[in-house]
Amino acid sequence: MKVLIQNLQNKFRLTPVLKALLKKTAISALTGKKKDPRSQITILVTNDAQIKEFNLLYHATPEATDVLTFDLSESKRTLSADIIISAERAKNNAKVYKTTPDYEIMLYAAHGILHLLGHNDDTARKRQKMNQKAQEIVQKIILAHS
Question: Reading across the β-sheet that carries 2-7, which strands appear in turn?
């Protein structure tokens, strides 16, 4: 499994530690799922303006969001996907939820991968369950890193 991290913004620094944690988050979220070793996930960290453009183009929603997920897989066995994360949303939400931008970015990556695995957040109950699962994934990575 290959996880690529690309920084497309300059408002928030992606440290080498955060990049490593993002890779671990992606791999941890996929643990136990039978995927071809040629599978690849690209995590693109962008800003509100860029993610707003993606959201408008692909979802006809003219607003910024925290994370967008695109499954580009051509088969069920080999995963190919892009996860687009807004660093600005992470920074703002970290203040609201009293976390850190790094934590929020990891949380969004886990959330995006859960979408790839078929999880949905189209109802309040499903959203709560999905958020809890994403938090568990991130907590596991943070504890292992400590």
Answer: 2-7, 40-46, 80-86, 67-71
Nearest to 5, CA basis, from 19, 16, 15: 19
Q: 52 is written with which tokens?
A: 């707003």
In the prediction, which pLDDT does 34 show?
A: 60
Would you identify the CATH topology of the domain 2-145? Collagenase (Catalytic Domain) (3.40.390)
* Residue 112: alpha-carbon gap to chain centroid: 4
d(CA 42, CA 44): 6
Question: Helices in 3-117 by DSSP H: which ranges?
Answer: 16-29, 48-59, 87-97, 101-116
Say how many C-beta atoms besides its own lie within 10 A of residue 66's C-beta. 21
Residue 102: pLDDT band with limits 50, 70, 90: very high
Q: Where do the domains of the chain lie?
A: 2-145
Distance of CA 46 to the CA centre of its chain: 12
